[in-house]
Amino acid sequence: MEPKNVSLEMKEYVADMGADTINWCMQCGLCTNLCPWRLVPGETSESFNIRHMQRLAQMGMEGFEEEKSLFACTTCGMCQTNCPRGVKIVDNVRAMRASIVGAGMAPANLRPILGSAHANGNPWSGPREKRTDWQEGLNIPFFGPDKEYFLFVCCHSCYDPRSTRIAKSVTRLLTQAGISFGVIGIEESCCGESMRKIGDEELFQKLAQSNVNLFNDKGVKRIITTSPHCAWTFKNEYPELGGEWEVFHYTEILDQAVQEGKLSFSGKVGKKIAFHDPCYLGRHSGLYDPPRNLLKGLQGAEVVELDRAREMSLCCAGGGGRIWGEVPLGERFGELRIVDASDRGAQILATACPYCVNMLTDACNSLSRQDSLEIAELSEILAIALG
Fold first, then answer.
1. Are residues 119 and 78 in the same domain?
2. Of 285, 95, 103, 284, which Cα lies nearest the Cα of 198?
3. Which of 65, 82, 101 is the last residue of a domain?
């Protein structure tokens, strides 16, 4: 076997990029055992081993930069929340990626994504001036001093035709509940969460600082987001850049509105619904009850739990930049999720994240289950149930 070189410079560089807990790892292997890649076959599954990858970085050895290893992680957090040493594994992955992307060696499939975020302020190749096209005919209010909340709509829900339905449903529900909110518009940029997880630290700093300056100039104090990815990064990563706001995912606001009697659902749903916990709403943010409370308040709905739920929820595979990855049929976590829901007799598989909707819809279609199982974002179900 050919010996590998040990580079103390690489080890120190990765640590400086944010992998400051890399040496805490004692190589127990629990992270690899819990990783969702262990549940599917295929070349990527065989290549990606989070324990081994961390060991290489820990020793300053070459090999972790292989694309099918380094960029396979979905940052789902399953390994991190169960690590007996409290290693910040997601930060370690981000730092390892930054060492590669910062050197100009981002994977080919991610370069257009990063380029669009640089040029347009979003990764979906959408012109900045079209960021608000989804609002046409809806009379969405603009944010100002008279509004309590600033509503930040995920880039995906601004540009993707399927995902714009989420933005429309959320705004209808907030309006029905009497929530004082407004949007800023075309000046907004991507929150940068996925860009940072991909490893483009410079791009994240650019997007985030732009948003911090914009939001503070507008007098923002409280934020509602449509995506748990946006909520997580605003709450956890923006404060160090000067973004000190109260941040809520829309399910928290609507759950509170129902409890206070400001929002009710008169329409009968009459379906069996299973809820898929998004990683960034659940494991990363600890929000498990708000979406379930909302579902349980629907008339005629039978809510069932999936076998892998709450803290042990199975990732949809869209995080960490993987929403832009190409994965062969039979190797997708989402397909396992579709089988989970079908086995529970669910007619609707609901979630509360635009990335999850995207990944689960693709998985459902690839398994030809779209006639028996509907993939829906929670806000869409709630909006219909308004009656």
1. no
2. 95
3. 101
